[in-house]
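Teaching soon. Got one?

===
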Amino acid sequence: MAPKTAYQWHPEIHERWAKEQLYFWKLSFSPTYDRERVVEGIHTALEQQGATAFTVYELFAGGYDIFLRVWLSTDRITFEGALHEALGNYTVVAQALWVNRVICYWPWESAPGELDIRTVPEQVLDNPMAPHEIERINRREISKADRDRYQGENLIAPLKRRKGVKFFTAISTHSQAFTTYATQRLEARIKDVFRKAEKIEEKSLYAGVGFGQYLLMGRTSDYFAIERELTTPLNEAVDPAVYGARTITFPVSSQDFLDSSYELHTDGKSASVDNAAEALAGGETHEVEVKASAFASVTRWLQEGGKPKPEDAVADSLLRAVTGLLNADGGAVVVGALERSRFDSHERLKDQPRLGEWVVCGIEGDVDGGDWDRWQRRLWNLLESRIEPSAMQWVSIERADIEDRTVGMVSVKAGNRWFYHYPKDDPRPHFWVREGNRTTEKSGPNGDTYREEKRR
């Protein structure tokens, strides 16, 4: 079985959602460099600081042993203290660069060779994803439809490993303060050289403070292209007489990392649950509602057999549940289970899995239930057409397999506005709210009071 694709999170997501700062460290160790012990110590320090997005590179030139790239929610001094504590038997020389601007980062370049970075829509940045959905992406458990949607919003990008020499080039300047014009001119010259380097791939450029004013990151299959296309032209372009600038390059010793992780940090708090099995085992709550189907009456199908037929009442029941969670505190609607108290002894369900209070019938008996992609698209269309305003950025549809049954889980974040359900043949908007283990309609003064007390 092919390994699941790992995803990187956009730098703006790390900054806005996880409140993290990007750092680079050059690290050297004495009296000796024990790779296994050093990597263990670095990992311990990262774990203590809650770092979940990092890469540990081993160097073979430049006077340092390790180059570390990490997103941290703590500060530089705190992390360095944790590192010294974890490697108490070593003398550690640590020089940091903290990034104040990601100028370009190759997974999000707008076109090959363009030194820019595609941005995340501001509306998405202002509405963080629910922690359980972030964890699902961290675990690489998203459907193709979700993956395409999140990549389209620039939230994530697939991690692609390529061959070649990875390297970092730091550009430092003298301490004299530059005018804005001089800084812009220096940066333009750096970008011009970097853009013309034809043998360099995976181009990334950062501006920051620390061991350099700029840091370039790239990969090449032609080692000597680093000097030929980059460092020599850079040294000529940045004009040491004016800027006092110099470059120093750190080649990475192998194509593989010593250690890495690409997860977005969360606080672990979520108004929902991690998966459908957990939701069913816990039963219906303020955050969880269970439905037998999304489109067809499973009860009628059990009684009459035949091909499932869509029924508006079934679809409206699901829409009420989703709208109620949107207007409350978020959660999940699990689709594909029946109450054991009513259906446990039904002949047609005798071989179906039991979980908690539920018989897991799956979505196979629903309209399009035998084809997950068609069922998911049908459900997306239903949610898009009958809930206003659009709730698509607050909702995700996930697949889960419980033994031989497929169930759907509609994960819902609490919205930053109010949502209304429009039944197919009813032009009036209906305002639903999840309260306890029930979804209730709030109309008239009751709705006004609720919206006033639970402001968005």
